[in-house]
Protein backbone atom coordinates (compact mmCIF):
# COMPACT_ATOMS: atom_id res chain seq x y z
CA UNK A 1 0.00 0.00 0.00
CA UNK A 2 1.52 3.30 -1.13
CA UNK A 3 0.75 6.42 0.91
CA UNK A 4 1.57 9.91 -0.40
CA UNK A 5 2.75 12.99 1.45
CA UNK A 6 1.00 16.27 2.22
CA UNK A 7 -0.51 17.81 -0.95
CA UNK A 8 0.46 14.66 -2.86
CA UNK A 9 -1.53 11.70 -4.06
CA UNK A 10 -1.22 8.35 -5.78
CA UNK A 11 0.20 10.32 -8.72
CA UNK A 12 3.53 10.65 -6.90
CA UNK A 13 4.13 6.87 -7.22
CA UNK A 14 3.82 6.86 -11.01
CA UNK A 15 7.47 5.75 -11.44
CA UNK A 16 7.23 2.93 -8.89
CA UNK A 17 3.97 1.14 -9.59
CA UNK A 18 5.18 -0.92 -12.51
CA UNK A 19 8.34 -2.22 -10.84
CA UNK A 20 6.61 -3.09 -7.56
CA UNK A 21 3.57 -4.68 -9.21
CA UNK A 22 5.68 -7.26 -11.03
CA UNK A 23 5.93 -9.16 -7.74
CA UNK A 24 3.27 -7.69 -5.44
CA UNK A 25 -0.32 -6.53 -5.51
CA UNK A 26 0.00 -2.76 -5.21
CA UNK A 27 -2.58 -0.26 -4.00
CA UNK A 28 -1.85 3.47 -4.19
CA UNK A 29 -4.33 5.52 -2.19
CA UNK A 30 -5.55 9.10 -2.29
CA UNK A 31 -6.42 9.90 1.31
CA UNK A 32 -9.49 12.13 1.81
CA UNK A 33 -8.54 15.72 1.06
CA UNK A 34 -5.59 14.66 -1.12
CA UNK A 35 -4.92 13.64 -4.70
CA UNK A 36 -8.22 13.10 -6.52
CA UNK A 37 -10.12 12.28 -3.31
CA UNK A 38 -12.11 15.42 -2.60
CA UNK A 39 -13.37 16.01 0.94
CA UNK A 40 -15.67 18.64 2.46
CA UNK A 41 -13.84 21.56 4.10
CA UNK A 42 -14.71 20.38 7.62
CA UNK A 43 -13.18 16.91 7.10
CA UNK A 44 -10.64 15.97 9.76
CA UNK A 45 -7.42 15.36 7.81
CA UNK A 46 -5.15 14.89 10.82
CA UNK A 47 -2.93 11.85 11.20
CA UNK A 48 -5.21 10.06 13.65
CA UNK A 49 -8.22 10.07 11.32
CA UNK A 50 -6.16 9.28 8.23
CA UNK A 51 -4.42 6.32 9.89
CA UNK A 52 -7.82 5.04 11.08
CA UNK A 53 -9.11 5.26 7.51
CA UNK A 54 -6.16 3.21 6.27
CA UNK A 55 -6.77 0.62 8.99
CA UNK A 56 -10.43 0.31 7.93
CA UNK A 57 -9.39 -0.04 4.30
CA UNK A 58 -6.98 -2.87 5.12
CA UNK A 59 -9.65 -4.67 7.14
CA UNK A 60 -12.11 -4.27 4.28
CA UNK A 61 -9.68 -5.62 1.70
CA UNK A 62 -8.85 -8.64 3.90
CA UNK A 63 -5.61 -9.02 1.96
CA UNK A 64 -3.44 -10.33 4.79
CA UNK A 65 -0.39 -8.48 6.15
CA UNK A 66 0.35 -5.37 4.10
CA UNK A 67 3.66 -3.59 3.55
CA UNK A 68 3.04 0.14 3.79
CA UNK A 69 5.33 2.32 1.67
CA UNK A 70 4.90 5.97 2.56
CA UNK A 71 6.61 9.33 2.17
CA UNK A 72 6.92 12.58 4.12
CA UNK A 73 3.69 13.34 6.05
CA UNK A 74 2.33 10.01 4.80
CA UNK A 75 5.29 8.39 6.52
CA UNK A 76 4.13 9.88 9.80
CA UNK A 77 0.62 8.55 9.12
CA UNK A 78 2.12 5.09 8.50
CA UNK A 79 4.08 5.28 11.76
CA UNK A 80 0.85 6.16 13.59
CA UNK A 81 -0.90 3.22 11.91
CA UNK A 82 1.83 0.76 12.92
CA UNK A 83 2.07 2.22 16.41
CA UNK A 84 -1.64 1.76 17.08
CA UNK A 85 -1.69 -1.76 15.64
CA UNK A 86 1.27 -2.79 17.81
CA UNK A 87 -0.48 -1.38 20.88
CA UNK A 88 -3.64 -3.46 20.36
CA UNK A 89 -2.14 -6.59 18.78
CA UNK A 90 -3.69 -9.67 20.41
CA UNK A 91 -1.74 -12.88 21.04
CA UNK A 92 -1.88 -15.29 18.08
CA UNK A 93 -3.72 -12.68 15.97
CA UNK A 94 -2.58 -12.08 12.39
CA UNK A 95 -1.06 -8.61 12.01
CA UNK A 96 -2.37 -6.20 9.40
CA UNK A 97 1.06 -4.69 8.73
CA UNK A 98 3.99 -6.73 7.49
CA UNK A 99 6.59 -3.94 7.28
CA UNK A 100 7.06 -0.21 6.73
CA UNK A 101 9.13 1.47 4.04
CA UNK A 102 9.37 5.17 4.81
CA UNK A 103 10.88 7.72 2.43
CA UNK A 104 11.94 10.83 4.38
CA UNK A 105 9.08 10.48 6.88
CA UNK A 106 7.96 13.53 8.80
CA UNK A 107 8.81 12.94 12.44
CA UNK A 108 8.91 14.70 15.82
CA UNK A 109 12.67 15.31 15.68
CA UNK A 110 12.75 17.31 12.44
CA UNK A 111 12.66 21.06 12.95
CA UNK A 112 12.34 21.92 9.26
CA UNK A 113 9.16 23.87 8.50
CA UNK A 114 7.98 24.31 12.08
CA UNK A 115 7.76 28.09 11.81
CA UNK A 116 5.70 27.84 8.60
CA UNK A 117 3.33 25.38 10.23
CA UNK A 118 2.97 27.64 13.27
CA UNK A 119 2.26 30.64 11.02
CA UNK A 120 -0.43 28.86 9.01
CA UNK A 121 -2.09 27.92 12.29
CA UNK A 122 -2.64 31.61 13.06
CA UNK A 123 -5.71 33.52 11.87
CA UNK A 124 -3.65 35.51 9.35
CA UNK A 125 -1.79 32.47 8.07
CA UNK A 126 -5.00 30.49 7.64
CA UNK A 127 -6.65 33.35 5.77
CA UNK A 128 -3.68 33.73 3.44
CA UNK A 129 -3.62 30.01 2.69
CA UNK A 130 -7.36 29.84 1.97
CA UNK A 131 -7.25 33.01 -0.15
CA UNK A 132 -4.17 32.52 -2.30
CA UNK A 133 -3.66 28.74 -2.30
CA UNK A 134 -6.03 27.99 -5.24
CA UNK A 135 -4.36 30.60 -7.51
CA UNK A 136 -0.71 30.13 -6.54
CA UNK A 137 0.35 27.71 -9.29
CA UNK A 138 3.79 29.35 -9.74
CA UNK A 139 4.50 28.87 -6.03
CA UNK A 140 3.45 25.22 -6.26
CA UNK A 141 5.97 24.65 -9.06
CA UNK A 142 8.71 26.39 -7.07
CA UNK A 143 7.93 24.27 -4.01
CA UNK A 144 8.14 21.07 -6.08
CA UNK A 145 11.56 22.06 -7.42
CA UNK A 146 12.77 22.50 -3.83
CA UNK A 147 11.84 18.89 -3.17
CA UNK A 148 14.46 17.71 -5.70
CA UNK A 149 18.22 17.99 -5.21
CA UNK A 150 18.42 18.68 -8.96
CA UNK A 151 15.46 20.91 -9.95
CA UNK A 152 16.16 20.23 -13.64
CA UNK A 153 14.76 16.72 -13.11
CA UNK A 154 11.28 18.13 -12.41
CA UNK A 155 9.35 17.58 -15.62
CA UNK A 156 6.46 19.64 -16.93
CA UNK A 157 4.22 16.58 -16.56
CA UNK A 158 5.18 16.31 -12.87
CA UNK A 159 4.45 20.00 -12.23
CA UNK A 160 1.11 19.81 -14.01
CA UNK A 161 0.17 16.56 -12.29
CA UNK A 162 0.74 17.98 -8.81
CA UNK A 163 -0.97 21.27 -9.72
CA UNK A 164 -4.15 19.46 -10.80
CA UNK A 165 -4.39 17.88 -7.34
CA UNK A 166 -3.50 20.95 -5.34
CA UNK A 167 -6.07 23.34 -6.84
CA UNK A 168 -9.07 21.04 -6.32
CA UNK A 169 -12.08 22.44 -4.41
CA UNK A 170 -11.60 22.63 -0.65
CA UNK A 171 -7.95 21.62 -0.80
CA UNK A 172 -6.73 24.62 1.21
CA UNK A 173 -9.17 23.77 4.04
CA UNK A 174 -8.02 20.14 3.95
CA UNK A 175 -4.37 21.20 4.20
CA UNK A 176 -5.17 23.53 7.11
CA UNK A 177 -6.90 20.67 8.92
CA UNK A 178 -3.71 18.62 8.63
CA UNK A 179 -1.56 21.50 9.87
CA UNK A 180 -3.87 22.27 12.79
CA UNK A 181 -3.28 18.77 14.14
CA UNK A 182 0.41 18.69 13.30
CA UNK A 183 2.01 19.44 16.68
CA UNK A 184 -0.33 17.25 18.74
CA UNK A 185 0.03 14.43 16.21
CA UNK A 186 3.82 14.63 16.40
CA UNK A 187 3.72 14.53 20.18
CA UNK A 188 1.70 11.31 20.04
CA UNK A 189 4.35 9.82 17.76
CA UNK A 190 7.16 11.01 20.01
CA UNK A 191 5.76 9.11 22.97
CA UNK A 192 4.57 6.01 21.11
CA UNK A 193 7.00 5.19 18.31
CA UNK A 194 8.93 2.71 20.47
CA UNK A 195 5.81 0.47 20.48
CA UNK A 196 6.23 -0.31 16.76
CA UNK A 197 7.35 -3.91 16.36
CA UNK A 198 7.32 -4.47 12.58
CA UNK A 199 10.46 -4.19 10.42
CA UNK A 200 11.08 -0.66 9.13
CA UNK A 201 13.22 0.60 6.27
CA UNK A 202 14.08 4.32 6.31
CA UNK A 203 15.24 5.92 3.06
CA UNK A 204 16.27 9.54 2.69
CA UNK A 205 18.38 11.82 0.51
CA UNK A 206 21.28 13.84 1.83
CA UNK A 207 19.94 17.03 0.20
CA UNK A 208 16.46 16.89 1.74
CA UNK A 209 15.16 20.40 2.56
CA UNK A 210 11.76 19.29 3.90
CA UNK A 211 12.69 16.72 6.57
CA UNK A 212 15.98 17.09 8.43
CA UNK A 213 18.17 14.10 7.48
CA UNK A 214 19.68 14.14 10.98
CA UNK A 215 16.24 13.57 12.49
CA UNK A 216 16.08 10.12 10.90
CA UNK A 217 19.05 9.05 13.01
CA UNK A 218 17.00 9.86 16.11
CA UNK A 219 13.92 8.18 14.67
CA UNK A 220 15.95 5.06 13.91
CA UNK A 221 17.12 4.89 17.52
CA UNK A 222 13.48 4.66 18.69
CA UNK A 223 12.54 1.78 16.37
CA UNK A 224 13.08 -1.82 17.44
CA UNK A 225 13.84 -3.30 14.02
CA UNK A 226 15.06 -0.69 11.59
CA UNK A 227 17.31 -0.46 8.55
CA UNK A 228 18.37 2.99 7.34
CA UNK A 229 19.69 3.88 3.88
CA UNK A 230 20.84 7.38 2.97
CA UNK A 231 21.12 8.23 -0.72
CA UNK A 232 23.79 10.82 -1.61
CA UNK A 233 22.77 13.67 -3.85
CA UNK A 234 19.01 13.15 -3.64
CA UNK A 235 16.34 15.37 -2.15
CA UNK A 236 13.02 14.86 -0.40
CA UNK A 237 11.44 12.63 -3.07
CA UNK A 238 14.01 9.89 -3.84
CA UNK A 239 11.30 7.64 -5.33
CA UNK A 240 10.71 10.32 -8.00
CA UNK A 241 14.22 11.67 -8.40
CA UNK A 242 15.86 8.24 -8.81
CA UNK A 243 13.00 5.71 -9.04
CA UNK A 244 15.13 2.86 -10.35
CA UNK A 245 17.46 2.96 -7.37
CA UNK A 246 14.55 3.37 -4.96
CA UNK A 247 12.63 0.44 -6.45
CA UNK A 248 15.66 -1.84 -6.26
CA UNK A 249 16.26 -0.97 -2.60
CA UNK A 250 12.63 -1.59 -1.67
CA UNK A 251 12.37 -4.92 -3.50
CA UNK A 252 15.61 -6.14 -1.95
CA UNK A 253 14.37 -5.19 1.53
CA UNK A 254 11.03 -6.93 1.06
CA UNK A 255 12.83 -10.16 0.17
CA UNK A 256 14.30 -10.19 3.69
CA UNK A 257 10.96 -9.61 5.48
CA UNK A 258 9.06 -12.78 6.52
CA UNK A 259 5.85 -13.24 4.56
What does this structure look like?
There is one protein chain. The chain is of the alpha/beta class. It has 12 helices and 5 strands. It has one domain (2-256): Alpha/Beta hydrolase fold, catalytic domain (Rossmann fold). It has helices at 17-21, 47-61, 72-88, 114-120, 123-132, 137-147, 156-166, 171-180, 182-192, 213-221, 238-241, 243-256, and strands at 2-3, 66-71, 97-103, 200-205, 226-231. The mean pLDDT is 92.
CATH topology: Rossmann fold
Indicate the overall shape: globular
Mean pLDDT: 92
How are the strands of the biggest sheet laid out side by side? 1-2-3-4-5
* CATH hierarchy, class: Alpha Beta
* Pattern of helices and strands: EHHEHEHHHHHHEHEHH
Structural class, please?
A: alpha/beta
List the helices and strands and how they pair.
Elements: E1 2-3, H1 17-21, H2 47-61, E2 66-71, H3 72-88, E3 97-103, H4 114-120, H5 123-132, H6 137-147, H7 156-166, H8 171-180, H9 182-192, E4 200-205, H10 213-221, E5 226-231, H11 238-241, H12 243-256
Parallel strand pairs: 1-2, 2-3, 3-4, 4-5
Helix pairs in contact: 2-3, 3-9, 6-7
Summarize the structure.
48% of the residues lie in helices and 10% in strands. By secondary structure, the protein is α/β, with parallel strands linked by helices.
Features:
alpha/beta, Rossmann fold, 259 residues, 48% helix, 12 helices, single chain, globular
Amino acid sequence: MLVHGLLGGSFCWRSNLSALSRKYTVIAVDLPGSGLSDAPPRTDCGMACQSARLARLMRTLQSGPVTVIATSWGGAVALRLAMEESAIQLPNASPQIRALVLAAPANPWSGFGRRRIAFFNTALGGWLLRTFFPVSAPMHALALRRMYADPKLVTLAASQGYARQIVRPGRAHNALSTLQHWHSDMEVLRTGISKISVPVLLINGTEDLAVDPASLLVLRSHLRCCEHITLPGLGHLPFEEDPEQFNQIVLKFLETVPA
